[in-house]
């Protein structure tokens, strides 16, 4: 989960960007946790209506919505339908095309006919038609954080969102690096210099800020969990204002930031009859080139020498996996579904894969419920 740019909170003064951190427990933190708990078993739109009330009582709407975005990562929303909504829509649309619908009475006849075929009442059928819309989903489970956990998670996501606009980043730390170097190699920097307890990364300009944030999340999370650390970045935020300096360190900001959940580990593919290729099922040539310390051309040659890959939208995909991957992705409706599946293939960031297979994301909160659309 990352906060969208419109919800980020920071002040800019003399070229320096200061994130607006929550530094002490606010009554709002416990209140919002309570609100989510009270809405278990109710529709998302009811929850959203209640949250809007807090935007009008003196709180910055970006703060309320940002906290809500963090809390929704602790929620499970599920549709409640007598029959699967996709099947209900398919049956209803097919019947409407055959019988014709020119009035409300015609519509009722179509619903009655389809309901009879499916063995449900017309009322249950109508409720099922769009039960999978985000606003109609029911909050079925909520794992409440403490006010302190929510404070730290919000600060982390706010800082990460700003860092995603960075053009250049310098990191330093003391003690075990907790695989920060490895996490940085997976970010996809244009230039990366690594040393003992330090790193410097140069990023190409991008409009895919959400994708950049997802890639930086693991490295940033590992950094702020260390006792002594520092970060400086050149950040192109806010847009149109020129570059700013973002400076964070453990002395001033230690203990203020912590993700709600630790970075997830890569899983092994359970459905494959053979083990994964040496470099993975799905590989970004640029990332592999950085990892091996060679050119992209040499990295692609190494891939082809170790396995049978085909190029798909700038990625190298195991040829035996390609058609199954394409078919599975075409059957998925949300980013969460795609992310869960791609993690079994060792893919940490689903966005380049979705893009390679012609799938666009319409972002929503929580991020896992973002809808997927086929571009081709």
Q: Helical element count? A: 15
Order of helices and strands: EEHHHEHHHEHEHEEHEEHEHHEEHHHEE
> Could you name the ranges where pLDDT drops below 50 across 5 or more consecutive residues?
262-275
Our Rg estimate from Cα atoms comes to 24 Å
Shape, principal axes of CA atoms? globular
In terms of DSSP E residues, the strand content is 15-25%
**Which structural class is indicated by helix and strand composition?**
alpha+beta
User: Termini distance?
Assistant: 27 Å
Architecture overview:
With 376 residues, the chain is α+β, with helices and mostly antiparallel strands. Among the domains are: 85-131; 148-253, no CATH class; 282-374, no CATH class. It is 43% helix and 18% strand. The chain has helices at residues 27-38, 44-55, 61-72, 85-99, 104-118, 122-129, 147-163, 180-185, 209-224, 250-253, 285-292, 296-306, 319-330, 335-343, 351-356, and strands at residues 10-13, 16-19, 75-78, 138-142, 166-174, 191-195, 198-202, 228-235, 244-249, 282-283, 309-312, 315-318, 359-362, 371-374. The strands form four sheets. A seven-stranded mixed beta sheet has the order 1-2-9-8-5-7-6. The two termini are 27 Å apart. The relative contact order is 0.11.
Summarize this structure briefly:
Helix content is 43%, strand content 18%.
List keywords for this structure.
7-stranded mixed sheet, single chain, 15 helices, globular
């Amino acid at each position: 989960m990352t906060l969208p740019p419109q919800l980020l909170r920071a002040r800019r003064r003399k070229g320096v960007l200061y994130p607006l951190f929550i530094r002490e427990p606010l009554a709002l933190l416990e209140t919002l946790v309570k609100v989510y708990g009270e809405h278990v078993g109710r529709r998302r739109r009811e929850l959203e209506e209640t949250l809007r009330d807090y935007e009008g009582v003196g709180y910055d709407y970006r703060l309320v919505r940002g906290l809500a975005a963090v809390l929704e990562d602790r929620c499970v929303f599920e549709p409640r339908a007598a029959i699967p909504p996709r099947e209900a829509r398919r049956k209803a649309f097919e019947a409407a095309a055959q019988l014709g619908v020119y009035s409300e009475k015609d519509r009722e006849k179509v619903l009655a006919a389809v309901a009879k075929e499916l063995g449900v009442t017309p009322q249950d059928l109508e409720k099922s038609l769009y039960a999978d819309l985000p606003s109609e989903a029911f909050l079925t489970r909520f794992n409440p954080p403490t006010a302190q956990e929510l404070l730290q998670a919000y600060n982390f996501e706010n800082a990460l969102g700003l860092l995603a606009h960075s053009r250049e980043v310098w990191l330093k730390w003391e003690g075990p690096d907790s695989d920060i170097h490895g996490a940085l190699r997976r970010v996809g920097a244009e230039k990366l210099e690594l040393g003992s307890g330090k790193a410097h990364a140069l990023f190409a300009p991008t409009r895919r800020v959400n994708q950049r944030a997802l890639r930086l999340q693991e490295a940033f999370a590992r950094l702020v969990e260390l006792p002594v650390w520092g970060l400086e970045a050149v950040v192109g935020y806010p847009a149109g204002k020129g570059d700013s300096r973002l400076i964070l360190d453990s002395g001033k900001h230690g203990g203020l930031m912590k993700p709600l959940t630790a970075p997830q580990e890569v899983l092994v593919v359970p459905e494959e009859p053979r083990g994964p290729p040496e470099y993975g099922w799905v590989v970004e040539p640029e990332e592999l080139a950085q990892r091996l310390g060679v050119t992209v051309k040499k990295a692609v040659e190494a891939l082809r020498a170790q396995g049978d890959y085909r190029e798909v939208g700038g990625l190298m995909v195991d040829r035996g996996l390609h058609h199954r991957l394409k078919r599975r992705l075409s059957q998925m409706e949300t980013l969460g579904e795609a992310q869960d599946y791609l993690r079994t293939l060792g893919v940490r960031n689903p966005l380049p894969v979705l893009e390679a297979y012609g799938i666009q994301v319409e972002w929503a909160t929580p991020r896992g419920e973002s809808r997927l659309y086929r571009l081709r």
